[in-house]
Structure formats: structure tokens, C-alpha cells
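Students often ask why inverse folding is considered easier than folding. One informal answer: many sequences map to the same fold, so there is more than one right answer. In these notes we will look at a single instance of the problem. The structure comes first.
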């Protein structure tokens, strides 16, 4: 149920973001304002505080549904899993890499403002990829439909220009997008838990959230299904622990467990 709800939210928002990047900016402009780095650049403290509090309470829901680069990675992994049986193993947290990425993003922002910080911003990265790779495809499809309608006497669609942007910008945007897709097919949410500065920031907020993905040691038979399903490689069945800072709230582990031994519940009070 949680997994389905999360997928529905993620797909709906991902569709809306793509429409936004394809030119429906007027009616969907509010979507950009809820993103972390654009909020930072606009000094929008309310959005920043909202995500900080939501993450401290419930974990990285932002990475589950709201970030289009995260959903792109999940889509890539979903495609791979259609063809190849894919399982993961627990890995240690890479706080050094995450800290370095966050520091680099802040340094770029201080040195060159939004333009440089945008090089590491996941939202801008997805935006560049979608605009470069999807816009020509959308224009081609629109022209195809328009042509078919015109052939039947309905001249109701304006022909779209299919001009590509600058070659360097196009090559950069598409190659970064392809690298993220390849990485996601290989190791799930590896990008999210190593080089993404927003992931590092949200990970720090989510170290000990109020509501956690937790393993019930009494019910768990250590079959390892949840660990193998985890795209963030943050479930360690041997230790009976989930690294909340890396968990992207996809709820795949809960769906994989046949014993009902892993759930998203309020944390226990310290003894
Ligand atoms: S970690 Fe970064 S790239 Fe991954 S979903 Fe979160 S914000 Fe997006
Ligand atoms: S899938 Fe369930 S029973 Fe198996 S290791 Fe995970 S929590 Fe334990
Ligand atoms: S622990 Fe569960 S909910 Fe969190 S990322 Fe892994 S599979 Fe998804």
C-alpha cells in the first residue's frame, strides 16, 4: 500500500515536472519553488524549513517523490529489473563524499552564484536533461500528430521548431543524464547517497527521524529479501538495522518482506 501510494505520487509529480520543462511553465511554475536548491537561491526560508522539518519527522520523502532526478533513477532501475534479476547488499555510509559534495555546492554558490551551484543541483541537472533530450522528441511527436491531422483537413496545430540548443550545453546535459541513468541501473540510488548535495543535507536531517523504516527483530527470520530489494543499500539484515539517513522511502523493503517484519513506524524511545 505504502509502495503504491509512493509510486502514484512520484509518477504524478514527475509527469508535471516534465510538462513544466517542456514549456507549460505558467500553470506549473509553483513546482519549481518547492525544490531545495531553487529555494536556497531564492532565499526562501519557508520551503527550506518545511523540508527540514518534514525530513526530521518522516525521513526523505522529498527524495521519494518530489525530486525528478530521483524518480528518473527509479525508472532506470525499474527498466533494468524488467530484464535482469537485480539485488543489492548493504554498504557503509559514505559521509565524507556526501559532506564534500555539500561543501562543493555551497562553495560554488558563494563563488559564482546560482549558475555554478546549478552544476550540482539535482533539479537543475534533471531540467537540463529534460529540456535537451525530451524537447526535440516532444516537438517531433507534436509535428507528427499535427501532420496527420492536417492530412485529414484539420490545420489546427502550429508546427514546432526542433532546433537543438548549443552543442556543448546539449552534450553536457545529455551525458550527465545518461551517466545518472547508467549509475542507477548499476547500483540504484548511489548518486543520491554519494554526490548529491541535497541528499547529503536531507540525509543529515534524517539520521533519526520520528517515523522510521524499522526491522522487528522478533518477527525477522533474516531471509535477506529486504536487503536485496533496497535501492539505497541501507538495510543491514545481520545488524537488524536500517540507515535512515540513506533511506529514500521507496518502501520496496516493506513490500518484499513476507513476514511483516519491516515497517514504517514511530521510533522507539531511547532506553
Ligand atoms: S538525493 Fe538528490 S538526486 Fe537523489 S532524490 Fe534526493 S535530491 Fe534527488
Ligand atoms: S525480508 Fe523481512 S524477514 Fe526477511 S530479513 Fe527482511 S525484515 Fe527479516
Ligand atoms: S530501506 Fe526500504 S524504504 Fe528505505 S530505501 Fe531501502 S527499500 Fe526503500
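Output (designed amino acids):
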Amino acid at each position: 500500500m505504502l509502495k503504491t501510494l509512493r509510486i502514484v505520487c512520484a509518477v504524478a509529480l514527475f509527469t508535471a515536472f516534465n510538462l513544466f520543462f517542456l514549456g507549460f511553465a505558467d500553470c506549473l511554475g509553483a513546482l519549481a519553488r518547492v525544490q531545495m536548491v531553487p529555494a536556497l537561491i531564492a532565499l526562501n526560508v519557508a520551503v527550506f524549513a518545511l523540508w527540514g522539518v518534514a525530513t526530521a519527522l518522516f525521513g526523505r520523502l522529498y527524495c521519494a517523490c518530489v525530486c525528478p532526478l530521483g524518480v528518473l533513477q527509479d525508472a532506470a532501475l525499474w527498466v533494468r529489473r524488467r530484464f535482469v534479476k537485480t539485488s543489492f547488499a548493504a554498504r557503509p555510509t559514505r559521509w565524507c563524499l556526501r559532506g564534500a559534495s555539500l561543501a562543493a555546492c555551497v562553495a560554488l554558490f558563494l563563488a559564482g552564484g546560482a549558475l555554478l551551484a546549478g552544476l550540482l543541483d539535482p533539479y537543475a541537472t534533471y531540467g537540463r536533461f529534460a529540456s535537451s533530450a525530451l524537447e526535440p522528441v516532444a516537438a517531433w511527436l507534436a509535428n507528427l500528430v499535427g501532420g496527420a491531422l492536417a492530412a485529414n483537413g484539420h490545420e489546427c496545430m502550429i508546427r514546432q521548431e526542433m532546433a537543438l540548443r548549443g552543442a556543448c550545453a546539449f552534450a553536457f546535459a545529455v551525458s550527465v543524464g545518461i551517466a545518472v541513468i547508467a549509475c542507477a541501473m548499476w547500483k540504484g540510488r548511489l548518486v543520491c547517497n554519494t554526490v548529491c548535495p541535497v541528499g547529503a543535507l536531507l540525509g543529515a536531517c534524517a539520521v533519526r527521524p520520528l517515523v522510521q523504516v524499522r526491522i522487528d527483530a522478533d518477527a525477522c527470520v533474516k531471509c535477506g529479501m529486504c536487503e536485496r530489494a533496497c535501492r539505497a543499500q541501507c538495510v543491514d539484515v545481520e545488524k537488524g538495522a536500517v540507515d535512515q539517513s540513506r533511506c529514500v522511502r521507496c518502501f520496496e523493503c516493506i513490500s518484499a518482506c513476507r513476514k511483516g517484519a519491516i515497517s514504517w513506524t514511530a521510533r522507539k524511545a531511547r532506553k
